């Protein structure tokens, strides 16, 4: 592995931290829309969260993603870049002489990154969703449960990410940390293909041939568009993942992905699979723009005067 480069992991960590800070408020809104109830629209959800929990409600559960998603994105970007470099090296005896980007290499590298992302990201996403959803009113008429919500002065289900982690392991076992992982796999493998591939080709298309690498403006635009495409198309499986992961804060309703799809469709129709698509696409643009900009600028700083290549 002579062409393995650690700097891709470092740059991915910085990009990941930037994306969490930019995207978490809309991520909270997305989670409430998909797994909660009683919201007519995105704006209605924003107003309701603000009225009940003030501006701090939008940043609920951010400390854990900030610490962990930065590491998660470090691995995703590092795996993608090094897998792509490895494939290019074995396809061409002189990689520099061949085309910089081949679709088959990008596709395979994206799929590998997607699989790795689920192994690392499922527990992180689960804890984030549980913390975001624990103040959500819950009612299941056929179970005879009364509406309940963690109001001021009432003890919430989880006191923080560490307590949430310990509670899940104690009540559901280690396997409980991977609740919704199958839906996440179905979301992330195609999702990363529609994330990295549009970014690479868009940034190449925007960048003039005379330039050694994409400008910050090109990175921002290509990264944002790629994020909007990826998150928009991933919405149906993202809805199922959110519901499976939120399941368990109060009661377990779903036996798996297929049961979740079946129950959701029977109760809410086809439109349920597109809940949060607007906030997903809108949130995807700034998050991914910040991600790729942080990644590319960090890579430039680490490599100094060396030519920067797209991931």
UniProtKB/TrEMBL annotation:
Membrane topology note: Multi-pass membrane protein
Solcar repeat segments: 3-86, 100-205, 214-301
GO cellular component, one term: mitochondrial inner membrane
Main location (coarse class): mitochondrion
Keyword annotations from UniProtKB, A to Z: Membrane, Mitochondrion, Mitochondrion inner membrane, Repeat, Transmembrane, Transmembrane helix, Transport
Coiled coil: none
SUPFAM superfamilies (UniProt xref): Mitochondrial carrier (SSF103506)
InterPro entries referenced in this protein's UniProt entry, alphabetically: MCP, MCP_dom_sf, MCP_transmembrane, Mitochondrial_Carrier
Subcellular location: Mitochondrion inner membrane
Pfam families: Mito_carr
Molecular functions per Gene Ontology: transmembrane transporter activity
Domain of life of the native organism: Eukaryota
Family as reported in the entry's similarity comment: Belongs to the mitochondrial carrier (TC 2.A.29) family.
Name of the protein in its database record: Solute carrier family 25 member 48
Species assigned in the record: Ovis ammon polii
């Amino acid at each position: 592995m002579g062409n393995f480069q650690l700097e891709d992991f470092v740059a991915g960590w910085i990009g990941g931290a930037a994306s969490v800070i930019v995207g978490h408020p809309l991520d909270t809104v997305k989670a409430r829309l998909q797994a909660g109830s009683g919201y007519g629209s995105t704006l209605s959800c924003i107003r309701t969260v603000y009225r009940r929990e003030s501006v701090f409600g939008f940043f609920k559960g951010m400390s854990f993603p900030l610490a962990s998603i930065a590491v998660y994105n470090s691995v995703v970007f590092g795996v993608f870049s090094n897998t792509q470099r490895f494939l290019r090296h074995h396809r061409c005896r002189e990689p520099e002489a061949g085309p910089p980007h081949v679709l088959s290499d990008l596709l395979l590298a994206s799929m590998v990154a997607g699989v790795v992302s689920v192994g690392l990201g499922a527990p992180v996403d689960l804890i984030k969703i549980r913390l975001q959803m624990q103040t959500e009113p819950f009612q299941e008429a056929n179970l005879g449960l009364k509406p309940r919500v963690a109001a001021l002065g009432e003890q919430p289900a989880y006191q923080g990410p560490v307590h949430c982690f310990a509670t899940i392991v104690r009540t559901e076992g280690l396997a409980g940390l991977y609740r919704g992982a199958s839906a996440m796999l179905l979301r992330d493998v195609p999702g990363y293909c529609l994330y990295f591939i549009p970014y690479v080709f868009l940034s190449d298309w925007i960048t003039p041939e005379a330039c050694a690498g994409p400008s910050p403006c090109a990175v921002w635009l290509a990264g944002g568009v790629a994020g909007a495409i990826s998150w928009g198309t991933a919405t149906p499986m993202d809805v199922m993942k959110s519901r499976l992961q939120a399941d368990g804060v109060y009661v377990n309703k779903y036996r798996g992905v297929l049961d979740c799809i079946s129950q959701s469709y029977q109760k809410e129709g086809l439109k349920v699979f597109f809940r949060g698509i607007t906030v997903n696409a809108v949130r995807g643009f700034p998050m991914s723009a910040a991600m790729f900009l942080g990644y590319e600028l960090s890579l430039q700083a680490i490599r100094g005067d060396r030519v920067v290549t797209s991931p």
